[in-house]
Write a structure and sequence with these properties.
Layout lengths: L5 H14 L12 H17 L6 H27 L1 H10 L8 H18 L1 H8 L6 H30 L16 H17 L5 H34 L3 H9 L21
Helix pairs in contact: 1-2, 1-5, 2-3, 2-5, 3-7, 5-9, 6-8, 7-8, 8-9
């Protein structure tokens, strides 16, 4: 079975179109462009395969739409309303104003390709006309759990910051891991991969699906590293924070990985 059918290239084109918002503001390649690209790809798959949809594949695509709109909307509201966040990000993320146009194009293409790869397990279920089975529903359930988990983590952090803007968050899901929003993302994309593992046809489709999954897991660990560096800078002198980071895993529950700061290969 082909790994790159014509409809896959349509997904790539859609991701390129939506994520091109990053040319307005560099960080949008990986923030608003990411969230809204995933939502757009979910909607596009519903349209492309409208004649062969089944309940499970509809559910998976709707979860992509819900995930993308929630993430994109959350990031947009945070940027528009949080002056403190914008001030902090000016020192943490390059604005891209001095970046050569060719480099921006390379980042744009890489990001759009990753977004298409991430949804590929569901895409191949649709393209291979595999319908709905138990594993499809299990994958959708894991996706839904990850989406809820991530959403709750964001709400808990917002509530904590409103109560005490100068203190790190260690309540709710943040008692389990220090980056539960990233953990929720990883759970969501694990569900995506699970939903299609029994219908992937041939080495090519497996390679595409695994590349998308490994890529987003890498991005989440990279994000956790950036956050850890920033929090160490802001709260490193606080004894409560030091005790918190020494007793709470950074990303994976029950796995004694408390820091990724030293892993310089996590540079995305």
């Amino acid at each position: 079975m082909s790994a790159f059918p014509a409809n896959f290239w349509l997904l790539c084109a859609a991701a390129l179109l939506i994520s091109s918002i990053g040319f307005y503001k560099y960080v949008y390649f990986i923030s608003l462009g990411y969230g809204f690209s995933i939502a757009g790809l979910g909607a596009l798959m519903l349209w492309l395969y409208r004649g062969t949809l089944t309940p499970g594949t509809v559910a998976a695509c709707l979860l992509f739409i819900a995930y993308g709109i929630r993430l994109g909307g959350y990031l947009l509201v945070r940027e528009l309303k949080s002056s403190a966040y914008n001030k902090a990000m000016k020192t943490e993320i390059k604005d891209g104003s001095t970046m050569p146009f060719g480099v921006k194009c390379a980042i744009w293409i890489t990001c759009a390709a990753l977004y298409a790869l991430q949804v590929s397990a569901v895409f191949y279920r649709l393209h291979n006309v595999a319908g709905t089975d138990a594993l499809c529903w299990i994958g959708c359930a894991v996706m839904a759990f990850g989406l809820i988990f991530e959403s709750v983590a964001d709400l808990q952090k917002n509530a904590s910051k409103k109560k005490n803007p100068r203190r790190f968050c260690d309540s709710g899901l943040f008692k389990i891991v220090r980056c539960p929003n990233y953990l929720g993302e990883m759970i969501f994309w694990t569900g995506v991969l699970l939903s299609g593992v029994n219908v992937l046809g041939g080495v090519g489709q497996w390679a595409i699906a695994l590349t998308g999954y490994i890529g987003i897991i890498y991005v989440m660990f990279s994000g956790a590293r950036r956050l850890e560096i920033r929090q160490n800078k802001n709260y490193g002198s606080d004894p409560e924070y030091r005790a918190y980071v020494q007793s709470t895993p950074i990303l994976l529950p029950f796995v004694p990985l408390y820091s990724v700061e030293k892993y310089t290969f996590l540079v995305a």
